[in-house]
């Protein structure tokens, strides 16, 4: 986590993009969609499949798009802190 991030105040959604066998998928585009499926943000997963968003509490959909497949995951943080979720692509 970057220095200066206050996990008492920040809501952080983090995780990895993985394939069906649990192996990391680097270079995937990971989109953050709000509760009405509206696009909010996008990052490129690291070589180890890792991604991170700073968001507000609520229900979010993570959509990963990669050359090995696509996948969705839902996360619903209720407050500050780190909220981890992996997105499986197929």
Instruction: Note the run of SSEs as H and E.
Output: EEEEEEEE
Helix content: under 10%
What about the largest sheet? Answer: 4 strands, mixed
Total count of helical runs of at least 4 residues? 0
For the secondary structure, the number of strands is 8
| CATH class identity | Mainly Beta
Average pLDDT confidence is: 94
Keywords: Isopeptide bond, Ubl conjugation
InterPro entries: CarboxyPept-like_regulatory (IPR008969), DUF1416 (IPR010814)
Protein name: DUF1416 domain-containing protein
Organism: Mycolicibacterium poriferae
Distinctive features:
DUF1416, DUF1416 domain-containing protein, 90 residues, four-stranded mixed β-sheet, mainly beta, four-stranded antiparallel β-sheet, ubl conjugation
If you had to describe this structure to a student in words, what would you say it looks like?
The structure is a single chain. The chain has a single domain (11-88), classed as Immunoglobulin-like. Strands 1, 4, 7 and 8 form a four-stranded mixed beta sheet that branches. The protein is mostly beta strands and 90 residues long. β5 (60-66) and β6 (69-75) form a beta hairpin. It is built from no helices and eight strands.
Helix and strand topology:
Layout lengths: L10 E8 L10 E5 L5 E6 L5 E6 L4 E7 L2 E7 L5 E4 L2 E2 L2
Q: What is the compact description of this entry?
A:
With 90 residues, this protein is mainly β. 0% of the residues lie in helices and 50% in strands.
């Amino acid at each position: 986590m970057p220095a200066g991030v206050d996990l008492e105040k920040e809501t952080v959604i983090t995780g990895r993009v993985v394939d069906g066998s649990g192996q990391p998928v680097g270079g995937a585009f990971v989109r953050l969609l709000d509760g009405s499926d509206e696009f909010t943000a996008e990052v490129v997963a690291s070589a180890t499949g890792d991604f991170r968003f700073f968001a507000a509490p609520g229900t979010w959909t993570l959509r990963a798009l990669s050359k090995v497949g696509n996948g969705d995951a839902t996360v619903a943080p209720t407050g500050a802190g780190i909220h981890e979720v992996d997105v499986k692509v197929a």
